[in-house]
From TrEMBL, chain A:
One of its GO terms (biological process) is L-valine biosynthetic process. This is Acetolactate synthase small subunit. SUPFAM superfamilies: ACT-like. It holds the Pfam family ACT_AHAS_ss. InterPro entries: Acetalactate_synth_ssu, Acetolactate_synth/TF_NikR_C, Acetolactate_synth_ssu_C, ACT-like_dom_sf, ACT_dom, AHAS_ACT, AHAS_small-like_ACT.
From TrEMBL, chain B:
It catalyses: 2 pyruvate + H(+) = (2S)-2-acetolactate + CO2. Pathway: Amino-acid biosynthesis; L-isoleucine biosynthesis; L-isoleucine from 2-oxobutanoate: step 1/4; Amino-acid biosynthesis; L-valine biosynthesis; L-valine from pyruvate: step 1/4. Residues 210-345 form the Thiamine pyrophosphate enzyme central domain. Belongs to the TPP enzyme family. GO terms for cellular component: acetolactate synthase complex. Its EC number is 2.2.1.6. This is Acetolactate synthase. Residues 406-553 form the Thiamine pyrophosphate enzyme TPP-binding domain. Keywords: Amino-acid biosynthesis, Branched-chain amino acid biosynthesis, FAD, Flavoprotein, Magnesium, Metal-binding, Thiamine pyrophosphate, Transferase. Binds 1 thiamine pyrophosphate per subunit. Binds 1 Mg(2+) ion per subunit. It comes from Olleya aquimaris.
Length: 176, 577
C-alpha cells in the first residue's frame, strides 16, 4: 500500500551564504522529489534567511528530509507544516494590452471582483497584481486569458505559521 | 552589520602580521596541528606549494601519484589516528579527482579537510583553463564547503573547516581558494573555532531516554548489541566495553565498528551484514531487544527492512538525529555522543549474563564453522584460500596489526577473519565500497602510526585501480606491507554472476601483469606465493622486512564468500553455501 502524499510547506531558517540553496535543493533532487515552489527571503531576524519550500510527499519522507536539511551546518532550524497550520499566499503579475481595458468592459469587472490591483498603466499595456491562494490566482488567470495576456508570472508560496518558531530564542542560547 | 555567527572563545595570542594568503593557509594548518598533508601540485595552487617549500621543516607534504590517492591517504591517516586528514590539489581535474575520496569520507564519517586551488576570481565562470565548479560538484558529498576569493577570509574559513570536519559526526570539508586570494596580502590573525550558531554537533543528552533504554535492557530476556563506528569515532571504547560486560549482552559489529572491543572478547559474537557471521544475522530476528550503538542500519547490514528485527524493541544510540528512524523505527532513541551516553547508561544497568541465549550464538557459530570457516581457514583442497592468508597474518602479527583492505571478496574475508586487538585497526571503505581505497589509505595509516604494523590487503582488481601509489611508497619510504590476494577475477562480481546471473562472467576475468616485477620496479622487495607450504615463510619475511614489502598470494580462482545474505533477502535467510 502506498502511503498518502500531502502538500507540505517547509520553512528553513539559515545563514545567508552562497551555495546553501544548492545544498538544500540537492537534498530533494537526490531523492527524486520535485519542488513545487521555492522562495528565499529575509526572515524576521536580521542576518537570517528563510527558505519557503512547497513539496508533495509522504509524511515519512517529509520527516526524513527535515532531518537531512537540519543536518546542514548553515541551517539553523527547519519546520514542516500542512496547509491548515499556515497562513500562505502567492503573488502574480499580469501584463495586458491597455486597449482591452476600454474595449472589453468585462475586464474592469474581473479586476474589481478579484481584488486585483493595477500597478501601472501606460498607453500600451497595464500591469495587474494579485495576491492570494493558488485557486484565486488561477481563476483570475483563466478569466483574463480569454482576452489575451502578454506576460504572466507567479511567485512561489510564502507562508507564516500559526505556531511560534522561536528562532531568536535558539540564537540567543548560542550567544550565551 | 555582519552577524556574529561563530564562537572564538580562545583569545588570539598573536599580533597580526601582514602576509600572503598562501602563507596564511600554512599558518592555519600549523595552528590546527597539521604536520602532514597529501597532495598534487598544479597551476592554481602553486602559490601554496611555494609556501610549503619554505615551511617544509614544519609540515610534510606527501606527493601522491594521483589526487584520488591523496584523499585516500588522508582518510587512512584520519581513520587510524582520529585526527583530521588533509589533502590538497589544484583546480579543475585536480579538484575533480578528489571527489571519490570525499564521497567515501562523507559516507564513512571520516574527518578530512580538502584544499583546492581555483582560477583567479575575475575568471570565475569564464570557462578559464582548469576551471571547474568544485564547490557545486562537491556540495552533495561534503559536510560543508566554501569558496574563498579574498585572503582576509582564510583564517575564519579554515578555523570553521577544521571544527566542522572533526566535531559531532565527522565528515569531509572542502575549501576552494582562488589564485588571487593566495597572492593577496592581508593582516593575518588566527583564532580557533569553538562553535557555530547554526550547527549543533552533539545533541544534548536526554536523561529520560537513557533511563528508558536502561529499563528496556534490564527487562530483556534475549538482548543483542550491534555497534558501529560511532563507538570509536566517539572515543567511547572503554565506556562501551564496560556496558557490554556489565550487561552481559552478546555484541556484534558492523564492518566499520570492528575492533572497538577485541575480536577475542567473549561477548564479541562477530560481524553482522551481508557477509557477516551466521549467528548474529540469524539471531537479529530472534532477539527481544536490539541495541544499536553508533551505527546507521545500512542496507548491507539490515537486508530486507520489512523482515528486520520486527520482533524486537529497538534502542538506537546515535549522534546524528537524521539517522534515527531513517531505516529502522526505534522504540527508544538516545541522541548524543557515544562516550557520554554510554557513561550515563552504565550505572543504570543491572549486572547480568544470558548463558542460554549466549549459547545459541555459540551453537550457530559451530554450524558456521562446520560449513564455512573450517574450509576457509583449514582448507584441504589444493588451492590457497584467502582465509588461510588472514589466519597466517593473524598468527604472525598476534592481532596487533592494522588491516587496511580494499573492496571485494578479500575485504569481506579480511573483516571476517582478521583479529583486532586494538581499536581503529580495521581501515576499509565501508559505505561507498571504493575499489582502490586500500593501498593509498595504508600509506596514510602508516604515516600516522609509524609504530604500528600496517598491512594493506587488496584483490588484484582494486590494487590496479591505485597501483601508481607504489611510487608514493617508494619515494616516502613508507613501511607499508602490501598483500595482494590474486584470484585473477573481480571476485565479488564474479560470485554474483555465478549465483544470480547463471555464471555469465561478463568482464570479470583479469589478465594480470607481473605484480612482483612492478613492485621491484619501485625497489620494493617482493615475492609471489602459489603453494600452501610457502605461505608461512613468506608472511614471516614480509613482517620481518624493515620498510615496504609486496606479497602476492595466488588463491583459488572461483572461491565464494559465505555466509551471504542475498540482496533483498532477510538477514535470517542467510545462506551458508
Amino acid at each position: 500500500m502506498e502511503a498518502e502524499k500531502n502538500l507540505y510547506t517547509v520553512s528553513v531558517y539559515t545563514e545567508n551564504n552562497i551555495g546553501l540553496l544548492n545544498r538544500i535543493s540537492a537534498i530533494f533532487q537526490r531523492r527524486h522529489i520535485n519542488i513545487e515552489s521555492l522562495n528565499t527571503s529575509a526572515s524576521e531576524i536580521e542576518g537570517v534567511s528563510k527558505f519557503t519550500i512547497v513539496v508533495e510527499i509522504t509524511e515519512d519522507q517529509m520527516k526524513k528530509i527535515i532531518g537531512q536539511i537540519e543536518k546542514q551546518v548553515e541551517v539553523i532550524k527547519a519546520y514542516f507544516h500542512k496547509d491548515e497550520d499556515t497562513i500562505y499566499q502567492e503573488s502574480c503579475l499580469f501584463k495586458i494590452k491597455s486597449d482591452l481595458l476600454f474595449d472589453e468592459r468585462q475586464i474592469q469587472n474581473i479586476i474589481k471582483e478579484s481584488n486585483a490591483r493595477i500597478v501601472t498603466v501606460n498607453k500600451d499595456f497595464f500591469v495587474l497584481e494579485k495576491s492570494g491562494r493558488r485557486e484565486e490566482v488561477e481563476l483570475l488567470h483563466r478569466e483574463l486569458s480569454v482576452f489575451g495576456i502578454l506576460q504572466f508570472t507567479r511567485s512561489g508560496r510564502i507562508a507564516v505559521t500559526k505556531d511560534a518558531m522561536e528562532i531568536s530564542k535558539m540564537l540567543l542560547a548560542f550567544n550565551n | 552589520m555582519e552577524a556574529e555567527t561563530i564562537k572564538n572563545t580562545q583569545k588570539s595570542s598573536q599580533q597580526t602580521e601582514r602576509i600572503s594568503g598562501s602563507e596564511a593557509i600554512i599558518k592555519c594548518l600549523l595552528a590546527e596541528g597539521v604536520d602532514i598533508l597529501y597532495g598534487y601540485p598544479g597551476g592554481a595552487i602553486m602559490p601554496v606549494y611555494d609556501e610549503l617549500y619554505k615551511y617544509q621543516d614544519k609540515i610534510h607534504h606527501v606527493l601522491t601519484r594521483h589526487e584520488q590517492g591523496a584523499t585516500h591517504s588522508a582518510q587512512g591517516y584520519a581513520r587510524i589516528s582520529g585526527k583530521v586528514g588533509v589533502c590538497i590539489a589544484t583546480s579543475g581535474p585536480g579538484a575533480t579527482n578528489l571527489i571519490t575520496g570525499i564521497a567515501d569520507a562523507q559516507i564513512d564519517s571520516t574527518p578530512m579537510v580538502c584544499i583546492t586551488g581555483q582560477v583567479a576570481s575575475h575568471l570565475l565562470g569564464s570557462d578559464a583553463f582548469q576551471e571547474t565548479d568544485i564547490v557545486g560538484i562537491s556540495t552533495p558529498v561534503t559536510k560543508w564547503n566554501c569558496q574563498i576569493t579574498k585572503a582576509s577570509e582564510i583564517p575564519e574559513v579554515f578555523a570553521k573547516a577544521f571544527y566542522i570536519a572533526k566535531s559531532g559526526r565527522p565528515g569531509p570539508v572542502l575549501i576552494d581558494i582562488t589564485k588571487d586570494a593566495q597572492f593577496e596580502e592581508f593582516d593575518f590573525k588566527y583564532k580557533k573555532c569553538n562553535g557555530i550558531r547554526s550547527y549543533i554537533p552533539v545533541p544534548k543528552l536526554n536523561n529520560a531516554s537513557v533511563e528508558a533504554a536502561a529499563t528496556l535492557i534490564n527487562e530483556a530476556k534475549k538482548p543483542m548489541i550491534v555497534w558501529g563506528q560511532g563507538v570509536s569515532l566517539g572515543e567511547a571504547e572503554a565506556e562501551f566495553k564496560a556496558v557490554v560486560e556489565k550487561a552481559g549482552i552478546p555484541s556484534a559489529w558492523t564492518i566499520l565498528g570492528a575492533g572497538a572491543i577485541p575480536t577475542s572478547h567473549p561477548l564479541n559474537i562477530g560481524m553482522v551484514g551481508m557477509h557477516g557471521n551466521y549467528a548474529p544475522n540469524v539471531l537479529t530476528n530472534e532477539c527481544d531487544v536490539l541495541i544499536a550503538i553508533g551505527m546507521r542500519f545500512d542496507d548491507r547490514v539490515t537486508g530486507n527492512l520489512a523482515t528486520y528485527a520486527k520482533q524486537a524493541k529497538i534502542i538506537h544510540f546515535e549522534i546524528d538525529p537524521a539517522e534515527v528512524d531513517k531505516n529502522v523505527k526505534t522504540d527508544v532513541a538516545v541522541l548524543g555522543d557515544a562516550k557520554e551516553s554510554l557513561a550515563a547508561l552504565l550505572p543504570l544497568l543491572q549486572e547480568k549474563t544470558y548463558p542460554e541465549w549466549h549459547q545459541k550464538f555459540k551453537d550457530l557459530y559451530a554450524t558456521e564453522f562446520e560449513k564455512v570457516i573450517k574450509n576457509d581457514l583449514h582448507p584441504t583442497k589444493e588451492g590457497l584460500t584467502m582465509g588461510e592468508v588472514l589466519k597466517e597474518i593473524n598468527s604472525q602479527t598476534k592481532g596487533d596489526a592494522a588491516i587496511v583492505s580494499d573492496v571485494g571478496q578479500h575485504q569481506m574475508i579480511a573483516c571476517r577473519y582478521a583479529n583486532f586487538n586494538k581499536t581503529r585497526s580495521n581501515i576499509t571503505s565501508g559505505g561507498l565500497g571504493t575499489m582502490g581505497f586500500g593501498l593509498p589509505a595504508a600509506i596514510g595509516a602508516k604515516m600516522a602510526a609509524p609504530e604500528r604494523e600496517v598491512i594493506s590487503i587488496s584483490g588484484d582488481g582494486g590494487y590496479q585501480m591505485t597501483i601508481q601509489e607504489l611510487g608514493t611508497i617508494f619515494q616516502q619510504k613508507a613501511g607499508v606491507k602490501i598483500v595482494v590476494l590474486n584470484n585473477e577475477f573481480l571476485g565479488m562480481v564474479r560470485q554474483w554472476q555465478q549465483l544470480f546471473f547463471d555464471k555469465r562472467y561478463a568482464s570479470t576475468e583479469m589478465v594480470n601483469p607481473d605484480f612482483v616485477a612492478i613492485a621491484k620496479g619501485y625497489s620494493i622487495d617482493a615475492q609471489k606465493v602459489t603453494k600452501r607450504e610457502e605461505l608461512k615463510e613468506a608472511v614471516a619475511k614480509m613482517i620481518n622486512t624493515d620498510g615496504p614489502y609486496f606479497l602476492e598470494v595466488c588463491v583459488e580462482k572461483e572461491d565464494n564468500v559465505f555466509p551471504m545474505v542475498p540482496s533483498g533477502a532477510s538477514v535470517s535467510d542467510i545462506r551458508l553455501e
